[in-house]
Write a structure and sequence with these properties.
alpha/beta, Aspartate Aminotransferase, domain 2, 7-stranded mixed β-sheet, 14 helices, 12 strands, 15% strand
Length: 386
């Protein structure tokens, strides 16, 4: 069972059964207080903060993040969200007419739209390889995925953990095989940091983006983009600012190009050390393990209620702190609002490729009582078909 005593560490409304950590995370009190302290410092002397002390703070925060995800500090840059990061990558990838970007049918909608836009602009093709559900094994998944690879494939784009279906995908094996084939690998790890083990020194991904404001619990608008050094020169900034053709270039053009792109409050980035301290203080490995156990132990209970089946084996290879199950409803938005308005439950009911899924997330403040509340609410609802 998750750690009940940590509920008081969060700012979440106690009247809400919060089962949607996967969408935007939630910020614990000490991290949020650190965030506000940076913002107060910014407003006390904006010029000093943005021009002089802020960049030094950023170096400290970036070094802490790099150590946590096992890469070099000049291989990673802070961005507001993974969607921004993938726009930057898709635009600078050098796509040409006839090129293909191989992905899956399980990707996040904003990413699909991004790749479709840039591929259409360049005359390339975004290939959404159909993945049959439920998934049976890693070997079957990998074989099915690479069945979409052709001589025109230039890059692989894949989620580390999917959004609507909440599945941990075998990205290590995918990256190994893609590298063997000479393909660029781009991983959407929005849900991965502090959710599953992430070691970029051993994961052979060329490009990786992750959100810090989800499972790392940073303030909103805090994410990162990793690009291995051999590829960094390819990518121009999305926003041209002072770092481009800089009068005072640093040792990293990658950081010059992408870290500063106009005036903004970057306090959220600076909170990463506080996030790491919070997780260390509360033994987050144990907390996460307890949360995964709670999710997996309740998987069949909800599958039986919904008259469906899990989309992958209920084990650590495929399922982390989120579980998504198919649900038969013609009006998922109505069901979602009913669960919130009538029962005070924050849980997503999502459409993807003609299917509908309900997904619950578990973190340190959740208990079995929260899942019981959802179970009873679904039992009482007439907005879905048994």
């Amino acid at each position: 069972m998750a750690m009940k005593h940590l509920r008081d560490e969060f700012l979440l409304d106690p009247a809400i059964t919060f089962l949607n950590f996967g969408s935007f995370g939630a910020c614990p009190k000490p991290i949020f207080e650190r965030y506000q302290s940076f913002q107060r410092e910014l407003e006390a002397e904006p010029v000093k903060f943005i021009v002089r002390t802020g960049p030094a703070y950023l170096r400290i925060a970036r070094a802490a993040l790099a150590a946590y995800i096992s890469c070099l500090p000049d291989e990673v840059v802070y961005v507001t969200n993974p969607t921004y990061a993938i726009n930057l990558i898709a635009r600078g990838l050098g796509l040409e007419p006839g090129d293909e970007v191989l992905s899956t049918s399980l990707e996040y909608g904003a990413m699909d739209r991004t790749w479709n836009f840039y591929c259409q602009e360049k005359g390339a093709t975004y290939v959404r390889q159909e993945i049959a559900l439920p998934i049976v094994s890693k070997d079957d998944f990998i074989a099915s995925f690479f069945a979409g690879c052709t001589a025109r494939t230039k890059a692989i784009f894949i989620s580390h953990i999917t959004s609507a279906t909440a599945l941990i995908l075998p990205v290590h094996e995918i990256c190994v095989e893609a590298r063997r084939r000479g393909l660029i690998t781009i991983v959407d790890g929005a849900h991965a940091p502090a959710h599953v083990a992430l070691n970029l020194a051993t994961l052979p991904a060329d490009i990786y983006t992750g959100a810090c404001h989800k499972w790392m619990m940073a303030p909103k608008g805090s994410s990162f983009l990793y690009v291995k050094k051999e590829l960094q020169e390819r990518f121009d900034p999305l926003v041209i600012s002072w770092g481009f053709d800089s009068d005072q270039p640093s040792s990293s053009r990658f950081l010059d190009y992408h870290q500063f792109n106009g005036t903004r409050d970057f306090s959220a980035f600076l909170c990463i050390p506080a996030c790491l301290e919070f997780m260390q203080k509360h033994d987050w490995t144990t907390v996460s393990s307890a949360c995964r156990a709670l999710v997996q132990a309740n998987g069949m209970r909800f599958a039986d209620l919904l008259g469906t089946a899990p989309m992958a084996p209920l084990n650590d290879a495929w399922i982390g702190q989120m579980l998504s199950l198919p649900i038969r409803t013609e009006q998922p938005e109505v069901l979602q609002r009913e669960l919130f308005d009538k029962h005070g439950i924050e849980v997503p009911v999502m459409r993807q490729q003609g299917n509908t899924y309900i997904r619950f997330s578990i973190n340190a403040f959740n208990t079995i009582a929260d899942l019981d509340t959802l179970y009873e609410a679904l039992l009482a609802s007439k907005s879905w078909v048994r």
